[in-house]
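$ ./design --mode recover --in tokens.txt
reading tokens...
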């Protein structure tokens, strides 16, 4: 339910922070998916290609090029079979259920904190604000965006493993090198999963705050960094600057218009600026 709120003398309300516990848990869930996919890929793709077959890629005679093509076809056929199995094991429905589990927790926490922080300033109880919010469709869209990021990571991971192996086959690498590179890729994807989890949780939290503030007619905010040495330069440039919630804040040093918390691995937040009453 759209409102136009104000405070007797105006007020600045700090946005609810992104929860670190959910970031870690969500990152752990994505890493589990990657670990499970990697185990099956190793066993069912590389295990299918026995060592003696792979070692033939290391030959340097004129027979090698023709054999590499044959083995690559065998690899592609087997990797496609395994890919289909993994897409079934970690299908879109399962990924959405996991994403919804964590975004649901964050939404409930954000709602409680947001309205608890704002109720005294505007003279409307948290319970009434929550009951008349009417943002279900908006929050659901943000939920869907989060699950889409996890699906993208699943698909890109499988594509990366296939492309990397084919490239090493073409370069004549042996099984030990191929498996070592595969293990390195798995670890990098797990690290990327943690970054994606942090970014998506922070983004979801920031966007739900923005939706709730806009729903109350709050139009302005002030960028607030975490205030430590890890803050990137172009976010420090934005610190304490006022911006329109509907637009975000532009900085020429990176050429981006951003909302705090939605850039990759961003830990910034913002203060919501509640206008004073007209007759104050």
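writing sequence...
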């Amino acid at each position: 339910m759209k409102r136009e709120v104000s405070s007797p003398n105006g007020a600045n309300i700090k946005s609810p922070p992104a929860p670190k516990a959910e970031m870690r848990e969500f990152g752990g869930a994505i890493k589990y998916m990657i670990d499970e996919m990697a185990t099956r890929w190793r066993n069912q793709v590389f295990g299918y290609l026995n060592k003696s077959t792979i070692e033939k890629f290391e030959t340097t005679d004129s027979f090698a090029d023709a054999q590499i093509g044959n083995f690559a076809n065998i690899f592609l056929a087997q990797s496609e079979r395994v890919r289909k199995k993994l897409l079934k094991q970690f299908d879109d429905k399962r990924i959405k259920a996991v994403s919804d589990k964590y975004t649901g927790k964050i939404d409930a926490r954000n709602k409680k904190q947001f309205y608890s922080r704002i109720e005294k300033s505007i003279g409307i109880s948290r319970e009434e604000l929550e009951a008349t919010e009417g943002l279900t469709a908006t929050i659901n869209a943000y939920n869907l965006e989060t699950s889409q990021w996890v699906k993208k990571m699943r698909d890109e991971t499988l594509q990366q493993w296939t492309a990397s192996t084919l490239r090493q086959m073409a370069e004549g690498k042996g099984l030990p090198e191929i498996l070592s590179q595969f293990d390195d890729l798995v670890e990098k994807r797990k690290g990327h999963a943690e970054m994606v989890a942090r970014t998506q949780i922070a983004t979801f939290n920031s966007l739900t705050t923005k939706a709730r503030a806009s729903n109350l007619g709050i139009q302005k905010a002030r960028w607030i960094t975490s205030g430590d040495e890890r803050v990137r330069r172009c976010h420090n440039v934005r610190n304490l600057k006022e911006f329109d919630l509907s637009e975000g804040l532009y900085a020429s040093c990176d050429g981006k218009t951003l909302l705090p918390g939605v850039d990759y691995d961003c830990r910034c937040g913002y203060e919501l600026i509640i206008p004073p009453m007209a007759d104050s």
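exit 0
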